[in-house]
Amino acid sequence: MGSEAGGGAAAIDLLRSAAPFLPDADLLLTPGTGLVLVDLVNGFCTVGAGNLAPVTPNKQIEKMVEESTRLAKVFCQRNWPVFAFLDTHHPDKPEPPFPPHCIIGSGEENFVPALEWLENDPNVTMRRKDCIDGYLASFEKDGSNVFSEWVAKFQIKTVRDPSYLNVRWKKV
Q1: Under a CB-based contact definition with an 8 Å cutoff, are residues 145 and 127 in contact?
Q2: Can you give the pTM of this predicted structure?
């Protein structure tokens, strides 16, 4: 296939049609794209901020926060939807096997300093969660799901999650 003229392009097109992940350039301006930020909180990303925070500067975390901040600014400037999950726990409800972390009132449960401005941006939907699975944590007592409602309201077809730097885009 690669030896034929255009065979490489055909292979890439075939891969793109079958793969759920696509490069930034293909989807950045596509209607129906939403930005999802997952656990960009002090307790996971700020040096020395808690039991699960890095103890020394970490280039991968720094890059993730920088990319998340850059994308959040772009999305908010264009009035595009942003959904942020924030790990937040009550002190009397442990999350085994993890040590206590992101306890309400500790500051660990809050956005990293570079993203604090998102708390007041009208394009941002925030969801504090007390478990690993953000989707499950988005269920309300009446059975509705805040994340599903966000997807439906903004007709989200593609999600951008910069917290997974190796996976750039995901179709939903």
Answers
A1: no
A2: 0.79
